[in-house]
Amino acid sequence: MFADITLPALRKHPLPEEYASLVTDRKPRLEGFEERELEWRGTRLRYAVGGDGQPVVLVHGLGGTIENWRALAPPLAAEHRVVVPDLPGHGRSAPLPEARDLDVLAEAVLAIADAEVMVGAVWIGHSLGGVVALRAAVLRPEAVRGLVLAAAAGIGSASRAAQVTLAVLGVARPGRLIAPYRHAWAHSRLGRRAAFGWWGVADPDALAPELAEAFLVGPAHHADTRQAGRALLVSDPRTELDRVTCPCLCLWGASDNWVRVEDGIEYARRLRAPLRTIAGCGHLLIGERPDACLRAIREFVAALG
Angle at Cα 86 formed by Cα 296 and Cα 38, nearest 5°? Predict the structure, then answer.
C-alpha cells in the first residue's frame, strides 16, 4: 500500500546527545521546509521542519513519507512551526532494531518533537499515523495538546481480512514496482485509476497529478515498512482510548473503502470527539481534499484557544 495545533514559541534548551539533529544538504521534499536528521537509539531518523508559531506535528500513514503532506504542510507552516517525520523504516528514516509495537514508533516521533522543542503541539495523524499520534498522547500527555485523526487505522486493522491484506501487500510490495515510473503513472488517468482506485481515493481522475506522485514516491526509498505493519496488526487502540485526555477531532472521507467511516464513528464515540466527514472522498483525504482538511484543522485549532 502507498499510504498506506497551541503554545507560544518556546525557548530552545540544551538537548542530550541522543537528540542532536543535523541539517542535511538534500533538496527539500516540502516547499519551504528544511530537512534534518536525528540519531536516536542508534537509528537515523529524517524529518522536515518549517514555519514559525504554535507547534504542529504531521504523521504519515503506513507506506507513506514526508511528501504525503505536500498539500497541507506548506499552508500550515504559514501559521505554525511544523515538523513532518519519515516514520522509522519509511522514506529516508532507517528502521528500528526493535519495533514490535506502536509505542516505539510514537517514541521515535516524540524524540523528533523534543529535538525541535515542540512541547504542547497539535498532532495530525493520517491512517497509521493517527494511531501513532494516539500512542504519543497516552505516553506523554504534556507533549500533545490536541489530536486530529485523519482516517486513523487501528480498529479495523485487527480483522482477519486486514491481516491477510497487509500480509499480501507486505510480500508483493506493488508500490516498489510503480515507484520508478511514478511520474508517468501520476500524470496518466489510467495510472491514477490503477494505483488509487477503490482503496485510495473516491475519484482518481480528480486527484492532482503532483499529489498522486507524492503518494507514489515512498516505496522507492522505504527500508522496512513491514515492521510498522506488524506493529499495527497486533495493536488495538480501543483498550486505552480512555487515557487520551486532550481534545480530538476525527476527520474521515465518507467514501473511504480502506478504513471505513464506521471506524471513525467508533473513535469519535469512545473519545467523545466530533466526527467530520468529507463527501465524495476516500482514504487519502489529505491529498484528495486538502482544502476541506485544512479548513477542519484550522477550525479545530481555533477552538483550542
Answer: 120
Cα 201 from Cα 172, distance rounded (Å): 21
The second-level CATH assignment, the architecture, of 17-304 is: 3-Layer(aba) Sandwich (3.40)
pLDDT tens digits, one per residue of 187-210: 999 999 999 998 899 999 999 999
Contact, 45 vs 93, CB < 8 A? yes
- Give me the residue spans of the domains in the chain: 17-304
Q: Report which of 267, 192, 208, 280 is spatially closest to residue 237, judged by C-alpha positions.
A: 267
Q: Provide the pLDDT for residue 174.
A: 56
Cα distances (angstroms) measured from residue 197 to each of 115, 194, 205, 230: 39, 6, 9, 25
Distance, in Å, from the CA atom of 77 to the CA atom of 94, rounded to the nearest integer, reads 26
CB 27 within 8 A of CB 73: no
